[in-house]
Amino acid sequence: MDRRTFIKGVAGAGSLAMSGGLAMPALAQGAAKTLHFVPQANLANFDPIWGTQYVVRNASALVWDMLYGLDASGTPQRQMVESEEVSADGLTWTFKLRPGLKFHDGEKVLAKDVVASLTRWSARDPMGIMIKASQKELVAVDDTTFRWVLSKPFPKMKLALGKTNAPIAFIMPERIAQTDPFKQITEYVGSGPTKFLKGEWVPGAKAVFERFADYVPRSEAPSWLAGGKKMLVDRIEWVVMPDPATAAAALQNGEVDWWEQPLPDLVPLLKGNKNLNVDIGDPLGNVGSFRMNHIQPPFNNPKVRQAVLMALSQEDYMRAVAGDDEKLWKVLPGFFTPGTALYTEVGGEVLKSGKGNLEAAKKLLKESGYNNEPVVCVVAQDQPITKAQGDVTVDLLKKLGMNVDFVATDWGTVGARRALKTPPTQGGWSMFHTWHAGADCTNPAAYPAIRANGDKAWFGWPESPAVEAEVVSWFDAKDLAEEKAAIGRLNKAAVENVTYAPTGFFLSYTAWRKTVSGVTQGPLPFFWGVSKSA
Amino acid sequence: MSLASDHRPAAPEGLAIAPALPDILKAIKPRTGVTGFLRRHPTIAVGGGLLLLLILVAGLAPYLGTVDPSALSPARRTRPPSALYWFGTDMLGRDIYSRVLYGTRVSLLVGFAVAILASIGGLAIGLVAGYVRWADSIIMRMMDSLMSIPPILLAVSLMAITRGSVGNVILAITIAEIPRVSRLVRGVVLSLREQPYVDGAVAAGTRTPMIILRHILPNTLAPMTVQATYICGSAMIVEAILSFIGAGVPPNVPSWGNIMAEGRALWQVKPFIVFFPAAFLSVTVLAVNLLGDGLRDMLDPRQAKGH
Amino acid sequence: MLGYILRRTLSTIPVMAMVGLFVFSLLYIAPGDPAAVIAGDQASPEDIARIRANLGLDRPFLVQFGEWGWRTLHADLGTSIFTGLPVTQMIGQRIEPTLSLMVLTLIFAIVVSVPMGVVAAWKAGTWIDRGIMTFAVLGFSVPVFVIGYVLAYVFALQLDWFPVQGYTPITQGLGPWLGNLVLPALSLGCVYIALIARITRASMLEVLAQDYVRTAKAKGLGQKDVLFLHALKNAAVPIVTVIGIGIALLIGGAVVTESVFAIPGLGRLTVDAILRRDYPVIQGVVLLFSFVYVLVNLVIDILYTFLDPRIRY
C-alpha cells in the first residue's frame, strides 16, 4: 500500500491530508493502461496534409497508416502494401494492398481510398508534386490494386511514400481524402493502430487516442514507421503543457508518463530522479538555421552574407539553444545531418572552429561595401529555439558593427512576413531563424531550404546555379559514391552562396518514467511497442 | 443613466480600493517641517523613501558595478550568484544583477508613464463627460464597454496587434486604465456641480473653462493623485504579466517581467533567475502602494482621522 | 424599482454592441497571418493565399463584420481557424475549469478576507490591524505567477499534498476536483483577499463611527452582534462593489494561473488563440468575458436596491 492509498484510507484525518489523498485523479482503475504523454507542442489542428507542423505529423502517425514506412536504417519498408511491381522502363508502378485492412469506422481499405489520398497528398508534398508533374494516371485497378503511371521514372517512389517528413502520404477514406487539400478535414478516420477520440479532444490541452481493436499489425518487429505497430496500451492521452516547469513537475510527480522534449536545462533535475529515464530522443537531431534575404540589401551582397557566416559562433548558438550539455550539440560545418550516409564537411572550413572569426569578418564586411543598411531581424518569441537563436544573432550583428532592427514577434507573424519580397523597411525582412529536423536534411529530396533556384526557392530566395546543378546531379546519381560526391560539391557551393547560415546541429532529450518500457529513438515518438506497468 | 450606477461610493475603483493603513507611529504632537510631516505620515515616509531609493538605482544603474545588461556570454550561462555575478547569470550568460538594475528603469518608466498618461487621458474624458451633458452617455458607454473587457485581456489583445515595444506596452496598459480614471473624475465633477459655490460661480457668469480650472480641477487632484499611484503599481504588475504571457516589451529590453519570463521555466533548478527580479518588483509595487495609502490618508483627512 | 431594473438591463445592450465592434475591428487590423501559420514551414506563398481565401480572410471589413455580428446574435461564434471546431464548442469544453477556479477563488477569498477586514477594523490601530493590512498590501504587490510557483514547490513537490497541475472534472468526484484547484485558487486569491480585506476594513470603520452603531452599543448589544449584524450589513454595499470590479481582475489572473498549473481553461485558450491569431476564438472569448463582466455588474447593481434600503429609484 503506498502512502497515498494509506492517506485515502484514513479519511477524515484532517482536511489537508484528505485533499492530498483525494488529489490522485480518479483514473485509478484503468491507469496502468493509459499512457500520459506530453507532446512537444499543442495539437491545434489535425490534418496531416493541410498542416505540416511536426506535432500534427506525430499524432497522425497514430491514426493513419501509410503504404510504406521508413525503418530505423532509413530504408522504406512495406507497410499497407503487400507487394509492388515496377515496369522495366520504370514508368508504371503497380501496388497491391495487404488483405484485412480496415478503417476505424469498420469499412475496408480499398484501392480507391488510396488513390484519393495520394491525389490529395501529391498536391501539397514537395516530392508528391514532383511525381504529379510526370503523372499520366493514378487509378484503382480493383479493390486491392492500384497503379501509378508516370512519363518519367521516379526511382525514389518508395521513399516518397514512406518518408518521415511532413506531409506524409497517409491513407484516408475516399470521402475524407476528397477534401480540397487547402481545406482542413473535419473527420479523423484512419486505418492506423489507434482511433482518435474527437469528442475528448480539447485543442491546447488534450488529445486522446484509443487502441483500434481491428488493426492487423505486420508480423515484423516494429522499427520506426515500419513493422508491426502493436499497441500495448489501451489509451494514449496527450496532455499539452505550455509551461516546461509544470511538465517537469508533473513527470516527477508521476502525473504524466512520458515527456517528449524536456527543456535541456531541466534534464539534470530529471536525471537525478530515480523514477525517470532520460535519453536522446531523435539521434538525427536538428539543424539550426539563420536565414537571410538574398534579394534585398544588405544581404543581396554575397560578401556581407559571407562576413556574417564567418563571424558566427556556432558554439554560442548551440549553448543558447541546447544548453551546457555538450553531448547535445556539435558544430556543423555544412548543411547535412551528421551520422547519416551523405554527411559531408567539404567546403565548410569557415565554420569548422565553431567560434567564428570576428576580426576577419569585420574586415570582410568593410570590403563588401556595407553601407549601414538596416538589418531587419524578425524573431519569433514563442518558439524557444528561434528565440534563443535570435538573441545570439542580434548580439553577433551588433558586434560585427551592423545596424540591427530587432523585431520581436510570434511565429505566425514571421510566417506571414517572410513571404514578402518588399524591402525590409517597407514591411519586408532581412533575416529570420528556424530549424530543420535532421531527418529532413539527410539529402536534398525533401529539403527545400537547401535549394537555390531564386524565385522558386524557399523564403530568402537564394540563387546559385552551382547549388542547383548539384541537386540535379544528386537526383541523377547512380550509386552512393556518386551521391556523396554530388553532396560534397553541393555543400561547398551552398557555403559559398550562404544559402542559409547553419547555426549548428543539436539533439534533444526525451524523458519517461521507469514504469514505461519500449520507448525508442527516432525522428518522431513511436507509441507501438510501448507498454506501461502499474 | 450609465452602466455602473452613480450612487456607488466614490472610492472603490479598480485597485484604488485602498483604505487607510493604520498609522504605524502615533502622532504625539503636531510638529512642523519635514520630520514632523514624515512622523505624521509614516507610510508616505516608508513608501516614498523606498521609491526614491529605486529611482536612484535606476538613474545610477551604470555606476553601480553593472556591465552591459544585454552582453551575451553563452559559455557562462546559468551561473549561480557569486562574487563575480552578484545575482548569477541567465540562460544566455547575461549578468542578472545588471539586468535587474537596468530593469528598474523600464518598470519605473512603465509605471510612471502609465500613471501620468492615464490620469491626463482620464481627466480629459472625465471632465468632458461630467460637464457636457449630451456627450456624457456616449462617452461613459464607451468607457463601460472598454472597462468590461478585462484589463489584461485588453492589453494582451492590443499588444497582439502592435509591435512589442516599451511605448506600446505603456499605451496598451494606459488604454486599459483610462476608463477607471475617467469614471472617478466624472463622479467628482458631477458631485461638485451641485455645490452651492459652483452654482454661484455659474450664476455670476464665470466661463466654463474658468470654473473647471478654479473649482473642479483642484478638487479632482487629490483623489486622482491617489488613484495614479495605484495605477502606477498595477501597471508594473501588468507589464510583468504581459511579458509572462509573451506579449510584453521586446525581449532584448531588460525588464523585470522579461527576466522572469525567461527564467520561469527553470524555477526548480535555477530559482535565482526569477527570485531577484520578483523581489525587486514586489518591493517596488509595495513602495508605490504604501505611498498611495499614505497620500490618501493625508489628502482625505475624514477617513484617516475617522477612528 | 422595476423600471430601474429594466432600464439598467437595457443599458447593457449598447455596451455589448460596442464591445463587439471593438473586438472585431481590433483583430481585423491585427498583423500576422493565420494562413501562414496553418500552411506550415514549407508552404509557398500561393499555398498561403489559397488557404487565406478558403478561410474568407480576404474579404472586406464590413462584410466580415456584418456576417460575424449576425452569426454572433444567433449564438454562433464561428469556427476556429486552427482546429476547425466550432468556437462555442471549444468554449464549452473549457468553461468548467475556469468557472470552477473563479468560483472557488471567490468563495475562498471572501471567506478569508471579510473576517480579516472586520477584525482589522475592530482592532484598528493595534498590531493585529497592522499585520493584516501589511499582508493585504503584499497580496497585490507580488505577481500571481511567483505565488503560484512557490505554492506548487512547497505543497505539491515537497509535501506532495496536491497535484502540481491539471484539472479533474467535478463529475469525477468532489475530492479530486478540489485537490486540483486548491493551489491555483490560493495563488489567484491573494490579490482578491488583499482587495476585499482593505475595502471591508474601510467601510467597517466608517460604519462603526456612525450613530446607529453607537446606539446599538449603548443599547447593550455585544461586540460580536454589533460587528456582524449591524455593521457588516451596512458595509455590504462597497464589498459587493469590489467583487463586481474584481471579476475583471480575476479573469486576468486566471489567464496566468491556468498557464502555471496547466489547467485547460478559457484563459489558456485565449492566450493560445492570441499567439496563433485564431481570430474567431479570440473574439468569442473576449466577448464572453465582457458579457460575464457586464452581467455580474448588472446583478450587483440590482442587488444594491435590496442591500441598501437607503437607495431608492
What can you tell me about this protein's structure?
The complex is a heterotrimer of chains A (534), B (307) and C (313). Chain A has 17 helices and 21 strands. With 534 residues, chain A is an alpha+beta fold. In chain A, strands 8-9-10-1-11-19-12 form a seven-stranded mixed β-sheet. Chain A has a six-stranded mixed β-sheet with strand order 14-18-13-17-15-16, sandwiched between helices. Chain B has one domain (21-305): MetI-like (MetI-like fold). Chain B contains eleven helices and no strands. Chain C is an all-alpha fold and 313 residues long. Chain C is 77% helix and 0% strand. In chain C, helix 8 packs across helix 9, helix 11 (223-260) packs antiparallel against helix 13 and helix 12 (266-276) packs antiparallel against helix 13. The longest helix of chain C has 38 residues, at 223-260. The chains are: A alpha+beta (534), B mainly alpha (307), C mainly alpha (313). Chains in contact: A-B, A-C, B-C. Chains B and C meet through helix 4, helix 5, helix 8 and helix 10 of B and helix 2, helix 7, helix 8, helix 9 and helix 11 of C.
H/I helix tally of chain C:
13
Task: Characterize the largest beta sheet of chain A: strand count, sense, and whether it forms a barrel.
Answer: 7 strands, mixed
Overall form of chain A: globular
SSE order of chain C: HHHHHHHHHHHHH
**Which segments of chain A are poorly predicted (pLDDT under 50) over 5 or more consecutive residues?**
1-32
Helix coverage percent of residues of chain C?
A: over 70%
Distance between the termini of chain A: 13 Å
By DSSP, the count of extended strands of chain C is: 0
Q: Based on CA inertia axes, which overall geometry of chain C fits?
A: globular
Strand order of the largest sheet of chain A: 8-9-10-1-11-19-12
In DSSP terms, counting alpha (H) and pi (I) runs of 4 or more, how many helices of chain A?
Answer: 17
Give the distance, in angstroms, between the N- and C-terminal Cα atoms of chain C.
6 Å
Mean pLDDT of chain A: 87
Which percent range describes the beta-strand content of chain C?
under 5%
Structural class designation of chain A: alpha+beta
Radius of gyration of chain C: 24 Å
Q: Oligomerization state of this entry?
A: heterotrimer
Radius of gyration of chain A: 25 Å
Residue-averaged pLDDT of chain C: 79
Low-pLDDT stretches of chain C are: none
Strand content of chain A: 15-25%
